[in-house]
Amino acid sequence: MKSWTDRLNTPGVNGIRATPRTMGDVVEGQPMLVPTPRQVDDFIRTIPTGQSLSVRELRSGLARRHGADVTCPVTIGYHLRTVAEAANEDIERGMAIADVTPFWRVLDGKTPTTGRLSFGAAFVREQREREGLEP
């Protein structure tokens, strides 16, 4: 089985497609970015210390950066978990917190993805508190 880091670094097929159907805040026919895990990781790394984005804000920012109207809401959930789990693997290998992707600037206690993390939500809460972000 691939590690989360392998999944993060696996080249994926991304691009902009017409939204296949209306779902939530995504309207059928809109240009929709289907990002790779690496694109999500790279974007999260640009969020400054002490600032956070909601998942919706992350999706909007990614879409704008890549010339789309929206980012796929399903894909983003998968990739947020991949980014967080790969960062956890980096920490377990001894990488400093300052050098890993700060996924806690997007994930919080209310984000469904946080509850699925193999290492639990306590780490996310601790990092958010350390940076003065809302719990």
Descriptive notes:
Helices cover 44% and strands 7% of the residues. The protein is globular. With 135 residues, the chain is mostly helical. Strands 1-2-3 form a three-stranded mixed beta sheet. It is built from six helices and three strands, in the order αββααβααα. The termini are far apart.
Detail the topology: elements first, then pairings.
Elements: H1 4-9, E1 15-18, E2 31-34, H2 37-44, H3 55-65, E3 70-71, H4 73-92, H5 112-116, H6 122-130
Parallel strand pairs: 2-3
Antiparallel strand pairs: 1-2
Helix pairs in contact: 2-4
Characteristics:
135 residues, mainly alpha, three-stranded mixed sheet
What is the arithmetic mean of pLDDT?
Answer: 91
> Low-confidence spans: pLDDT under 50, at least 5 residues?
none
**How much helicity do the residues have?**
40-55%
Tell me the total number of β-strands: 3
Number of distinct helices: 6
Distance between the termini: 33 Å
Shape annotation: globular
Number of domains: 1
Percent of residues in beta strands? 5-15%
Provide the spatial order of strands within the biggest beta sheet: 1-2-3
Main beta-sheet annotation = 3 strands, mixed
Quickly give the structural class.
mainly alpha
